[in-house]
Amino acid sequence: MIDLRLLRDDPDAVRASQRLRGESEPSVDDLLEADERRRSAVGRFEALRAEQKQLGKRVPRASGDEKAALLARTRELSVEVKAAETAVGEAERELRRAQLAIPNVVADGVPPGGEDDYVVLREVGTRPDIENPRDHLELAELLKAIDVERGAKVSGSRFYFLTGVGALLQLGMLQLAIAQAVEHGFTPSITPALVKPESMEGTGYLGEHASEVYRLEADDLYLVGTSEVALAGYHADEILKLDEPVRYAGWSSCYRREAGSYGRDTRGIIRVHQFDKVEMFSYCRPEEAEAEHLRLLAWEEEMLAKVEIPYRVIDVAAGDLGTSAARKYDCEAWLPSQGRYREVTSTSNCTTFQARRLNIRYRDADGKPQVAATLNGTLATTRWLVPIMENHQQPDGSVRVPKALQPYLGGRDVLEPR
Fold first, then answer.
1. How confident is the model at residue 1 (pLDDT cuts 50, 70, 90)?
2. Enclosing domain of residue 125
């Protein structure tokens, strides 16, 4: 959630952020009013409690009519204090609802606009010149690497089996990602795929993204769409030592309902309900977050270079940011079969938005607790199999194995059709 001090000091900055996102500006006024009502309720409660304490000291020293009057006022105060305490609780709940309704404040310099208004920062690598390129599913079927027909038979549409070299290719890619993360000081973690509502809400996935999330109603648990959720919840209600960023690399299976995407990317494994991913997650001091964001992007690009695929980096427009992100960079890989770039990584600077919800703090130079910043970024995921196969395909349907992945496939440099 956003910092109430920013809201009070510069509400126009929050309104401007809402405009950039295409979100409701009146929500800012609702939050201002809720904040004022809560502060007023707290002030009244504290004043009544102070009077109650003062009366408690005076009653033993009083006598006669004075004592009777003080006791009568004490009884009245008891009722008023309880009512004021109830009013504070209601005001705090109302404030939280109003606060949860507003997404993170967009960072300076983020492009305005919606999904198609991103800014291309750079293009990296040479697009392969392939005559009549096969798409990833045709290649995978030749290699016996992906079986969507049996995936649908067992689980329904948008499920699949990775088989043979397909399974080895994914395992190799994810292990390569973990190895790189460890090399750069990340703590590897295999995270829970099921989380409590507090973690899902704390990371911002129960707002506009709620329709994307699978919920186990009987257990009141949610299936994560990214290990970001579990890694953010890992340090909830803690005070961290953040002399330098604390970084985790989470390996997990991920689940998304893909609500509202019917008819889009139904062929193959571009848009599916279950996939695996290695996700970077970082805690740092707020003043370090912008630099940490660029580091996460650099590590994503390092991985893309290892699997030898051409890509571009885009600065995502404000209207296409998730609830928690103040800024987001995507890496999009070139797909020869589609003749366009498609997203394969995303890294977001969530500033203090998630940590404020989850009560994650650190101590400043004076020893005072302050809210931490959180960031996340994809290091490898199942979708990467698509550009790897398509960009490295050969005319006979075989697929060249990038050198960095060859050790994970028994040293093979080419995967032959079966």
1. confident
2. 119-415
